[in-house]
Design goal:
The protein is built from 1 helix and 54 strands. The protein is elongated, with a radius of gyration of 31 Å. The protein folds into 3 domains: 4-370, Methylamine Dehydrogenase, Chain H; 373-461, Immunoglobulin-like, CATH 2.60.40; 465-549, Immunoglobulin-like, CATH 2.60.40. By secondary structure, the protein is mostly beta strands. The relative contact order is 0.11.
């Protein structure tokens, strides 16, 4: 078996390097956490040379880097802190106290880092603009965390209770825990954000993967994997989830469309980690005991290469251009190394020494300069008036500029168009029956990720009242009469001038009103009544008569 004496560290390192980011070909930096020496070593990937170690807290286990690549956050379990590192200068900022950090994830907009504190049973949000910790969120016994591509929900794996807790990031509130399998250890979310896959280790037998539908936070039937399943990664197209089974010495490929096992792929001994190239063509598996990395061609789910990778290969990260795989070689009590592998030829280069790196066990790589996933920068609501031309511009950030699409019913007379350059327009003249609220889903995609926005387009219409004929009633006879106004939002209705005694006017709150009751004795006569309909677009009035005759004898 692999590095069981430091299981928590290995779990964290898988999180740190589990999702490579695609981007431009540009010099980037790999950051290696050295748990035994309390440092992080930067490696210049252009030259494959290690820089001066950066002091962090005690026992750094996990690294996460902001989407803009400007800050690396290092979680140090023993000191209970997170250290921010400015990547431009490779200098450490003041440690941020959280609890007992074991894992860390950052929202797609880069504004908040969520830290899972295993022993504390909490998740601490950190505001990245000020590097300040906010109030901890109670969960269970968190050991892993992942955030949906739209940034709206953080899913926290509680290994002790066999649950996953969803956190709404807008309010930092925890939802009801979702039961999954035994000893859940890892989580990965599909690029479209629709499904979270939870890897259940299950020391007592074969592992499983539990799919969670994020729209309803409900768990589906478990998917069987192998023995001691302890790493998971999803292809960029979201079609396949790969699970490493350490004792079975296999990788299970799961077809996400059906949540069924498509094939089981034999690899080396003790497969410990998986990373997938940005183009999705190859999955690389680190085999701890075999001292190799297995390359799997995802198109056929067959082994395309077995690459010698030094002693104890564990964590893997892939450069944004997909050209190089960096494999961390764990050494117990001695300085570690990192082995670079050229993906074009699947050959390993000379190991990169980490001179002061004791128990180097986590790695993360900065995104290429200027390259990051999409986010929406325009508001999520717009208002148009019936019969009037309007234009709303959808804007996003992201590099390369995202392509924007829309799903949902648009009002008659209104159209959606991707304008290029990360913008789109919703424009036209609402016509016919267009008044109302139209709920749309906007999706922005580039090669670095996907973002969605729930968008509401409200088409307003001024109120109108139909012509009302004279209402005839008799003393002592019940009357129930309803008037319906058109317009959006539904108009409020009011009545002026006295009604016959025994009758009342009621605004039903939905654009209708009722005059009801029984005309009382002595109410015989003619009454002129005016009804007013009002909404945000205007006012309409209508006058009519109520004639009350005496009762039949």
């Amino acid at each position: 078996m692999g590095p069981a004496p430091h299981a928590a560290a290995l779990m964290a390192l898988r999180l740190a390097a589990s999702v490579p980011v695609a981007g431009k070909s540009a010099p980037v930096t790999a950051y290696v956490a050295n748990a035994g020496s309390g440092t992080v070593t930067p490696i210049a990937t252009a030259t494959n040379t290690a820089g001066r170690p950066i002091t962090t807290g005690t026992d750094p286990l996990a690294i996460a880097i902001t989407p803009d690549g400007k800050t690396a956050y290092v979680a140090s379990a023993a000191s209970g802190t997170v250290t921010p590192i400015t990547t431009a200068t490779n200098t450490a900022g003041r440690p941020i106290t959280t609890g007992s950090p074991a894992a860390i994830a950052i929202t797609p907009d880069g504004k908040t880092a969520y830290v899972a504190n295993g022993a504390s049973g909490t998740v601490t949000p950190i505001t990245t603009a000020t590097n300040t910790a906010r109030r901890p969120i109670p969960v269970g016994g968190p050991g892993a965390i992942a955030i949906t591509p739209d940034g709206k929900t953080a899913y926290v794996v509680n290994d002790g209770s066999g649950t996953v807790t969803p956190i709404t990031t807008a309010t930092n509130t925890a939802g009801r825990p979702i039961p999954v399998g035994q000893e859940p250890e890892q989580i990965a979310i599909t690029p479209d954000g629709k499904t979270a896959y939870v890897l259940n280790l299950n020391n007592a037998g074969p592992g499983t993967v539990t799919p969670i539908t994020t729209a309803t936070n409900t768990a589906g039937p478990p998917i069987p994997t192998g023995i001691y399943s302890d790493a998971i990664a999803i292809t960029p197209d979201g079609k396949t989830a790969y699970v490493a089974n350490a004792v079975s010495d296999t990788v299970t490929a799961i077809a996400t469309a059906t949540n069924t096992v498509s094939t089981v792929i034999p690899v080396g001994r003790d497969p410990d980690h998986i990373a997938i190239t940005p183009d999705g063509k190859t999955a690389y598996v680190a085999n701890y005991v075999s001292k190799t990395v297995t390359a799997i061609a995802t198109a056929t789910n067959t082994v395309s290469a077995v690459i010698p990778a030094g002693y104890n290969p564990t964590a893997i990260a892939i450069t944004p251009d997909g050209k190089t795989v960096y494999v961390v070689n764990v050494s117990y009590g001695n300085p570690g190394t990192v082995t670079p592998i050229a993906t074009a030829t699947n050959t390993a280069g000379p190991p990169i020494p980490i001179p002061t790196g004791i128990f180097s066990d986590a790695i993360a790589i900065t995104p290429a300069a200027g390259s990051h996933g999409p986010t929406f920068s325009s508001r999520s609501t717009a208002t148009a008036a019936f019969g009037a031309a309007f234009t709303f511009t959808v804007t996003t950030t992201g590099d390369p500029a995202p392509r924007i699409t829309e799903t949902g019913q648009l009002p008659p007379g209104v159209r959606f168009a991707d304008s290029g350059g990360g913008t789109a327009t919703i424009s036209g003249t609402p016509a016919k029956t267009a008044a109302g609220a139209y709920r749309l889903t906007l999706t922005a995609r580039n090669k670095n990720g996907t973002a969605t926005q729930a968008f509401t387009l409200t088409v307003t219409r001024a109120p109108a009242l139909p012509k009302i004929r004279t209402i005839r009633a008799r003393v002592g006879a019940a009357l129930h009469w309803t008037v319906r106004a058109t317009g959006y939002p539904p108009p409020a209705l009011a009545e002026s001038r006295p009604l016959p005694r025994g009758l009342t006017f009621i605004d039903n709150g939905n654009g209708t009103a009722t005059i009801a009751g029984t005309p009382a004795a002595g109410s015989r006569g003619r009454y002129r009544v005016t009804i007013t309909a009002t909404n945000t677009s205007g006012t309409a009035t209508r006058s009519f008569k109520i004639i009350v005759r005496r009762c039949h004898r």
